[in-house]
Amino acid sequence: VRRAVAHAVDRTKLARELMGPTTPVLDVPCFPPQFGCIKPEAVPHYEYDPAKAKQLLAEAGFPSGFTTTLSIYRGSPDRMLAEALQGYLRAVGIRASLNVTTLKAIYADVAQEKLPLRLESFGQYNINDASLMLSIYWGGGNQDSYRDPDVLAWVKEATQIGDQDRRRMLL
Question: Beta strand 94-101 with 117-118: parallel, antiparallel or unpaired?
Fold first, then answer.
């Protein structure tokens, strides 16, 4: 289903139309020049392909799509993006209602594994190290919805050591 969602969204068009014509489209959750950011070529790239998205949904047991919720927090700069995502998802059969709530409620739902989709901005501004974001989303806290013990150990070690070569390998 995650791959179907990835193929359902025209990220290039969204970036150009909502953020500006020179906005880069990233396949990684961090900005590539940041220390510890994975090399973009090391992760899959999902082309915009609604037919592929529908095929993947059918293979996952959702030939007619499904209904879900996309949550954003009040005051988020991402309202237009969330509404655009709703349209892309609807086109492949994913009917996502928009839940505009508090950031506290979103964090509580993540901690309780009750949040199917969320859209959240994370600005690192002048911190040129991906470990800040990684420790929040993959460090075992209430925002870590992955909770993989190996990833947790890697992130924990990487945020506690000064050996840059070892940190780069872990991150």
Answer: unpaired
- Note the maximum CA span of the chain: 51
Task: Please write the tens of the pLDDT for every residue from 123-148.
Answer: 655 667 767 677 777 777 777 777 78
pTM (predicted TM-score):
0.77
Q: Residue 38's closest CA among 143, 155, 139?
A: 155
Report residues of the chain scoring pLDDT below 50. none
Distance, in Å, from the CA atom of 119 to the CA atom of 142, rounded to the nearest integer, reads 16
Query: Around Cβ 78, how many Cβ atoms within 10 Å?
Result: 15
CA dist 125 and 138 (Å) reads 20
- What is the rounded distance in angstroms from the CA atom of residue 20 to the CA atom of residue 127? 23
Cβ burial of 28 (10 Å; 0-12, 13-18, 19+) is: middle
